[in-house]
Write a structure and sequence with these properties.
Elements (H helix, E strand, L loop, with lengths): L2 H13 L21 H4 L4 H4 L16 H11 L6 H30 L5 H29 L3 H27 L3 H4 L4 E3 L6 E3 L4 H8 L2 H18 L1 H29 L3 H66 L1
Antiparallel strand pairs: 1-2
Helix pairs in contact: 1-4, 5-10, 6-7, 6-9
Amino acid sequence: MTAHDQMRAMLDQLMGTGRNGENNRFQVKFNDPKVCKSFLLGCCPHEILSSTRMDLGECPKIHDLALRADFEKAQASRDYFYDLDAMEHLQAFISDCDRRTEAAKQRLAETQEELSAEVAVKANSVHELAEQIGQKLAKAEQLGEEGFVDESMKLMEEVDELRKKKLEAEQEYRNSMPASSYQQQKLRVCEVCSAYLGIHDNDRRLADHFGGKLHLGFIKIREKLAELEKTSEKRKEERRKARDTDRDKDREDRYRHRETYVGGRELDRRSKRHRSKSRERRDREREKDRGEQKSRSYRSKSRSRDRDRRSHSRHSGSGNSDRRRERDRD
């Protein structure tokens, strides 16, 4: 990564996607389903274990420091409960790792020479002391690099005491079994990261293991998971109440919307009702007009028949008068 890229990443992490009016390169918001919720909380295994023996490759979901900054700002005003999503992600990952650890133990049990119960206890004592030495030595080196010299020297004193105990435990272990068997490397699986540790590993190798990125990464993941699980029941109850509150609020908003604003489907229903009433009114008016036209036509025909009868009566009366006059002349 160039200096320019590093500077850009720092600005993204501090200011989010909206710095200088820019959009993030993925063109999504932090609450998009494609964004990794574990990354937003800084505990995605794909990121923590990158460039280690157990590198998981690129996460299938989006990682963007600017989106993390957006989330942290938004989380200050509203709870998104992404810690529960991250917990489920870490639980699935750790469960898979624990299954691999148990499988590695089973393979060792099948391939290594089986020890008696007494010898196994002594071998485990050597392993445990060696692990303590490696952990404290790695911690002492870290404190020394950070400038905490006194704390580092104190840990080195503890390391010296553990080395003496380890020598005694190794002697007991050596005396409890044949020399030929003692020379065989007895392996043990690290409970944290599932790496193999040998009973004859020196302090430097153990310090490199316990201070290495792989082991420390697993410690970070397991500690984060334990932290999230501690409050999971309470957080689930809070999420359930928040969802119920949001659902009730949405229902009230929809009801208030229908009362104060006619829109969408309600507008369609009212429009249809209005058109239906208009058609009914027009139909009644047409029926009324047709009735009046029939009435006028009937009256007109009646008057016409009356005129015809009167005309016929006049013509009939005139003919009778003419016939009476002709009889009188005769």
